[in-house]
Design a protein that fits this description.
Layout lengths: L5 E5 L6 H13 L4 E4 L4 H4 L8 E4 L2 E4 H6 L5 H13 L3 E3 L1
Parallel strand pairs: 1-2, 2-5
Antiparallel strand pairs: 3-4
Length: 94
C-alpha cells in the first residue's frame, strides 16, 4: 500500500513565486509526497456585473468576480511550480 500525503497550497501564495516556493519547501520538509494548487479561469466560473454578488469580509464588501479574477494563476507560473515540485521529488497537481 502506498500512502500519499498532499499539501494543499491552493492560492495561499498570493501569486508570489517566492512565497510559493517556500510553501513547496515546507511541504517537502514535512514529508508530503505531493502539492495541490487551485487554478481556474474566472470567466468560466463566475459572472461579472451587478448580479455577481459581494463577499462581506473584514468590514468590507468585495466583488466576488473581481476577487477571483485577482487570484487567477498564469500557466507559466504553474509550469515553473510543477518543475520546482518535481525537482524535490513531489507530485504536482492542480
Amino acid at each position: 500500500m502506498t500512502i500519499i500525503i498532499t499539501a494543499e497550497i491552493g492560492i495561499n501564495h498570493n501569486g508570489d513565486m517566492s512565497i510559493c516556493k517556500k510553501l513547496i519547501d515546507v511541504a517537502s520538509e514535512a514529508g508530503c509526497s505531493s502539492v495541490k494548487f487551485q487554478n481556474f479561469e474566472t470567466d468560466d466560473v463566475y459572472i461579472n456585473g451587478p448580479k455577481a454578488g459581494l463577499y462581506k469580509l473584514l468590514g468590507k464588501s468585495i466583488e466576488i468576480y473581481e476577487l477571483h479574477k485577482s487570484m487567477e494563476i498564469e500557466i507559466d507560473f504553474l509550469s515553473e511550480m510543477k518543475s520546482y515540485s518535481e525537482d524535490k521529488g513531489m507530485y504536482f497537481f492542480s
